[in-house]
Amino acid sequence: MKITSAEFICSNTNVALCPKEAIPEYAFIGRSNVGKSSLINMLVERKKLAKTSSTPGKTRLINHFKINDSWFLADLPGYGYAKVSKKERDSFGKMIEQYATRRTNLVCFLVLIDARIPPQQIDLDFMEWLGDSNLPFVIVLTKVDKINQAGKSKNLGMLKEELSQHWEELPLILETSAVKGTGKEEVMGFIDETNRKLGV
Ligand code: GTP
Ligand code: MG
Question: What's this model's pTM, rounded to 2 decimal places?
Answer without folding.
Answer: 0.95
